[in-house]
Amino acid sequence: MKNNENLQNKRIGIIGAGPSGLAQLRAFEALKNQGESIPEIVCFEKQSNWGGMWNYSWRTGVGKYGEPLHGSMYKYLWSNGPKECLEFSDYSFDSHFKKPISSYPPRPVLFDYIEGRIKKSNARDYIRFNTTVRWVSYDEDTRQFTVILDDLKLNRTYSEVFDYLVVASGHFSTPNMPYFKGIETFNGSVMHAHDFRGADQFRERNVLLIGSSYSAEDIALQCYKHGTKSVTLSYRSMPIGHDWPDGITEVPLVTHFDGDKAFFKDGSSQEFDAVVMCTGYQHKFPFLPDELRLKTKNNLYPDHLYKGIFFNSLPELIYLGMQDQYYTFNMFDTQAWVARDFMTGRMQLPEEAERRTDINIWLERKNRLKNSFDNVDFQTGYIKDLLALSDYPHFNLDKVSEMLKEWLRDKEENILTYRDKSYQSVVTGTMAAEHHTDWMDELDDSKERYLHGAEEEELIPENL
Fold it and tell me: Which end of the chain has less Cβ packing within 10 Å, N or C?
């Protein structure tokens, strides 16, 4: 593929510079470092910095330039799964931090890790920040995509043409906001988890969380940890089911509101000061025409994507990170490496009918899943399938699968202490350090406190 003139004439557009978009850039950089030619690449990011959901912003609703705000990140968010399960196989936590750290770091530490790998490349040269995609069209004759863009900073609209288009814009930014009868009479604050920026505002207040997702679980714990008077979780079909501490309860779904009082399906009712909708997100691609738009709910294997990546009716349209996720960063990497090899001609795809058959096999497997352990095994098998197709550095997926199941058991054992557990890296073999402070007692999520807090405390004289 060296000095391939045809390849150098190709153009690749990437929408989004979050973990998936950065994974795609990193995949091409890895190929370039091997002495291979790569196509022209342009990545569009509507935020002013990379990192996607891992960027924290105080803003809600719209950003600086009036665009719908992408991020759902909030203060005091800590990883809700072991970092060893998401570790890049080509860039370890040890190599970044130069020492063992605990298995559950806070957001600023994970963001620093994401940045650490990408800063070692020239990826930033490929990214146009403060740029949003307005519309995409595809020309059957030229077999190219035309992308209409807005440079938000310069208030300028222009277009670009690409041979391949990678949609890496994520699917946790457009809230699913249900209506409940009478909620318009509620006098307290009503928000979606997308606009939640921290629990400090709910100190000594009674909060209702509607939903039973990971966001409901984590926001409930954060509210409890930071002094909320009470937290009530309202579920649609099944409770989360943890052995919650006093102050957190689960009730069936809300039937209606009357003023500040919420009524539930079990006949109970309670007054609240705030309502947070933890009701999930929509896969939303307003820049894509109907025939190119992925239409799916959050699940482990969206239909119409061959290998969970290639839009089956037009495989030059590539979607990254569209699955429900047990694995995250390393799964995005495996997808990006496979996508790269298709776009550079290193890998050929079978015909559409054969691709459809493969999709159906995975969908049938997905439909047989019965519990979380089955889900972990399914996604582990999916990533193994991808690893067999590219040269992404292999890692011990069976060990990661065991860790994910142990993590699920840890949460069942004690939802307040599971983040204090330690795991072993499958990349370096390093055992995670024990954090200097129990998670429930740690109210500072800064990188400085996390990495150096205990060392600083040791220097403080006892008489102070």
Answer: C
440 closest CA partner among 207, 243, 220, 222: 222
Q: How far is CA 260 from the centre of its chain?
A: 34
From the DSSP assignment, how many helices (H) and strands (E) are in the chain? Answer: 10, 18
**Token pair 């705030």 is at which residue?**
274
Tens digits of per-residue pLDDT, 248-267? 999 999 999 999 999 999 99
Could you give the CA distance from residue 103 to residue 424 in angstroms, rounded to a whole number?
A: 9
The closest of 218, 262, 3, 231 to 106, measured between CA atoms, is: 218
pLDDT digits (tens, 9 = 90+) for 258-312: 999 999 999 999 999 999 999 999 999 999 999 999 999 999 999 999 999 999 9
237-241 long-range contacts (CB < 8 A, ≥24 apart) are 237/212, 238/212, 239/212, 240/212, 240/216
Q: What is the CA radius of gyration of the chain?
A: 23
Question: What's the gap between Cα 293 and its chain centre?
Answer: 20
Q: Residue 340 CB: number of other CB atoms within 10 A?
A: 29
pLDDT band at 4 (very low <50, low <70, confident <90, very high): low
> What gap in Å lies between CA 66 and CA 59, rounded to an integer?
11
Question: What domains are defined for the chain?
Answer: 5-173+281-407 (3.50.50.60), 183-277 (3.50.50.60)
The number of C-alpha atoms within 13 Å of 282 and in the hemisphere containing its C-beta is: 11
Band (123; pLDDT cuts 50, 70, 90): confident
